[in-house]
Structure formats: C-alpha cells, structure tokens
Amino acid sequence: MVDDNSLRPADPSAVGPWRIVARIGAGGMGVVYRATREGRVAAVKVIRPGLLDDAANRARFAREIQVLRTVRDVHISEFLAADLEGEPPWLATAFVEGASLRDEVARHGPLPEARWWAVARGLAQALAVLDVHGVIHRDIKPGNVILAPDRPVLIDFGIAVSEEATSLTATGLVTGSASWLSPEQAELKPVTIASDVFSLGSLLAFAGSGRPPFGQGSPIPVLAAIATKEPDLSGLTTPQISLVRAMLSKDPVDRPTPRQLLDRVKRPPSGTPDVPDPSPEVVTTPVIPAPATALGATRDSSPPQGRAPGLPPATHQRERPRRFRGSVLLWTVVVALLLVVTVGGLWWSLSRDPAASDGLSSGSDQSSAATPSARPTDGPSPSIPPAPVSDQLVSGEWALASYRLTNDAGLLGVAGTLRNNSTNAASGDVTVYVFVDGEYVGSATGRVTDVPPGGTTEVALTGSDAWRPGQQTLLVDVTER
C-alpha cells in the first residue's frame, strides 16, 4: 500500500525556490506539498495546470494571496511567498505541525474541556483579527483548523472575501461545507463576519461533542436544520452550551461580535484548568505595507492602522435583518434554495435579462473587477481587492465553465462546457436542475465519458420540461460511474 503522503511520479521535485518533500493533500485547485527552503519548512499550494486560465479561478487565487499577505496573527497561517505568474503558480505558507481538528476528533474523540477553551480562545482571536481587516473567511470547518502543540491555526483562505464585497455577492459566489454553513449562507443571503461566528459555533460544538450540531450526511436536511432548527448541544458542559448557543443564534445580529466573543473566552469558567494562551492582544494589529511590486500594488499614503485601505471601518451596530415570515409558497422557494450546496454539485445563480436567456453565459465573467498580476513577492499587502462579481456557487468537483439554456421546440435544454476539477479521470451521468425565479421548472440530463483531471468536455443536455424565461438558478449534479 502506498503512503498517501508519498510523492507520485508526476509530482515536481521543486517549485520556485522550494524543494518538494511530500504531499499534504489535494483538492479542486491543486496539490499542497510539504517543502523546504534553506531550512524553512512550508506548505506549498501548487495550482493545477491551466486552472488559472479561468478568470474566476485566477481572481480567487489572487484574493487568497492578498488576504494572507495582509492578515497576520499566530492563529492564522503565515504567508511566506507566492508566484501568481509561475509555471505552475504557487503559494507558500509556514508549515504547521499537527493534526487537523477533524482528524484529532476522529482519532481521539471530543477535546478535553481545558483544551476546548484554548481552541475557542485562539480561533476567537483569529476571527477578531480578520474582522479588524474586514475579511470574512466563509469556510470555517474542522478540516481548516490545524492543532499545533501550542495553538490552533486557521488555514485555507481560498474563498475569503472583504466585508464590502458581500453586497455584490448576495446572489453570487457563496461557497462552503454544508454542516458548517450559517443560516444566511444556507438561504443565499449576504454573508458577514457574523456568518463566521456561526460557523465557529458549529465547529466548537463538534470539538466538544464529536458531531456537528445540525447533523451530517445529505446536505438538504442539514441545511434545512441550520435554517430552522435548534442545535443539538448534548455532550457539552453548561458553560460551553451558553457560549455556543449564543454563537448559533439564527439572527446574525443576536450573535456576539468577534471582539465580544474573544472577551468572553479570554478566561475559562471557574473550575476549568487553565491552558496558557501564547496569543498577543488583538484589534490594534497594524497593516504592514508591502513592497511596491507586490501583486501590482502601488501606494500613495500609509493605510490607517488596523485596516487595509479601501475597506470600511468595522462596525457592530448591525441592522437587524427581517426574518422569514412568508407564505407556504415562499417557504417552498426557500426550501428549494436550501438545495444550493450539495455533495458533488454546483449552483449558478444568474441575474440577467430574460431576453438573453438563450445567449452564452460564463461563470468566469470578471468585468466588475480587475485581476492582480505579479511575480513572487514576500510580506503583507497594503490592501485586499474587492471580491469579483461571480455567477458561481461552487461545491464539488464538477463545474460548468460556460453554458446556455436552449429552447428546442419549447423544451428546456442545457448546452455548454463541463469541467472535471478532481484529481482523477472520471465518467458520469449529468443532471442539471433548473429553477426560474426561485421555482423549480425541470431538468436536463446527459452523460460524460473519460473526462481527464482538470479537463473539459462539451455537453448537450436534454429534457422533457417546458422552457421558461426568467432569472435562472442551475444545480449541476454528476453521479460518477
């Protein structure tokens, strides 16, 4: 049996100045390697060849670099260097020795209470620092927390955005893992730092009980539970329940802010053994300017301390959003929207002229945002660009790179380019479920064969349902065989 961390024949021996030692993991964007350079050990993410030819993927990777360059804290993965234009492109962060929270709980069960509070303190600090910089992580889950011997470290900022960009993405890019989403993510509403607080609450419930508080398995009932049901906090102590229940409030305005959360967990409850916290104080973390060559950045003046320029000041006087009180028909629409994150699925949420519904639409349209470009640089960046406007909501290994709805004798069809973002060649049965103006109208089906990893294939999917104009939302499901 081959060790999962062993290098494979196709793996590079070096990337940029880094010598590749072993594999850490692989995902849709590429492979993460353990690498060394002059005695320093790094986790180097190497992007899959050709993936950054897509403007949306390129913007996502550039945004991850910008976030890590700007935000610095002992509980956040440390940026070392990156090369957006390299062959292949890569990003190096400091290697953190330790298991993920997911693996730790799987192997040894729930965390002891003292360690639980230490993890809560560290991750609360990470959120407070992100809030200072106006950054929303959007994918806080046990697999994205590494338990170093002395601290938890939050990793993987591939889908992080700035707070000012959330108004642009209410029907745009919303990604994450079903069990760890917030109600607003499950209902396709704009996300804020309060969404990260909710996800952290679910993570802490898992860390203390060994299971997600809203269940696991099929995403549809999980998302419905997140949006409508109370969490299962059995197995937690009374102080833990008090904290986590506040974090899991359905209404974002009822959750503690990251600063309030950090203040609350600074000291464990009476009777809990204390675990020293090596973290420095937070909220006055300065933004350190980067070299002028960093990702094409230029500076006319120093940014204000504690926040990247161009980002609004953090405020916690949040407007209370109106909770859903609609009719049975509207509730049906919300339940349909709860389908948005599925295992192996991809949603495209489109806002466009109904008359153009037979035209080509691409999830790679980045006309509203510039894409940074640069050679390798070190150090933090002076700013985080707004997240690009996107029509994609991604969950899974398959994606429509482009598509158009067809109207064949009044019947609905879908034609376009399907991409296999997995690490293996695959075949499968494709079903596209189509919603128009929030209402399910039908589906189109087809089959793909031997699509190489990172490769694409043209599809022409047909159905027996009536075509209809309007604002479309597509759910793409591929059952591999």
Q: Can you characterise this structure?
A:
The chain has about 475 residues and is of the alpha+beta class. It has three domains: about 15-95, 2-Layer Sandwich (Phosphorylase Kinase, domain 1); about 100-265, Transferase(Phosphotransferase) domain 1 (Transferase(Phosphotransferase), domain 1, Orthogonal Bundle), CATH 1.10.510.10; about 330-480, no CATH class. The protein has helices at about 55-70, 100-110, 115-130, 185, 195-210, 220-230, 240-245, 260-265, 330-335; strands at about 15, 20-25, 30-35, 40-45, 80-85, 90-95, 100, 135, 145-150, 150-155, 160, 345-350, 360, 390-395, 400-410, 410-420, 425-435, 440-450, 455-465, 470-480. Helix 3 runs antiparallel to helix 5, helix 3 (about 115-130) runs antiparallel to helix 8 and helix 5 (about 195-210) packs antiparallel against helix 7. Residues about 165-175 and about 275-395 have low confidence and may be disordered.
CATH topology of the largest domain: Transferase(Phosphotransferase), domain 1
Rg measurement, Å: 22 Å
Number of domains: 3
Give the C-level CATH assignment of the largest domain: Mainly Alpha
Question: Mind summarizing the main beta sheet?
Answer: 6 strands, antiparallel
CATH architecture tag of the largest domain: Orthogonal Bundle
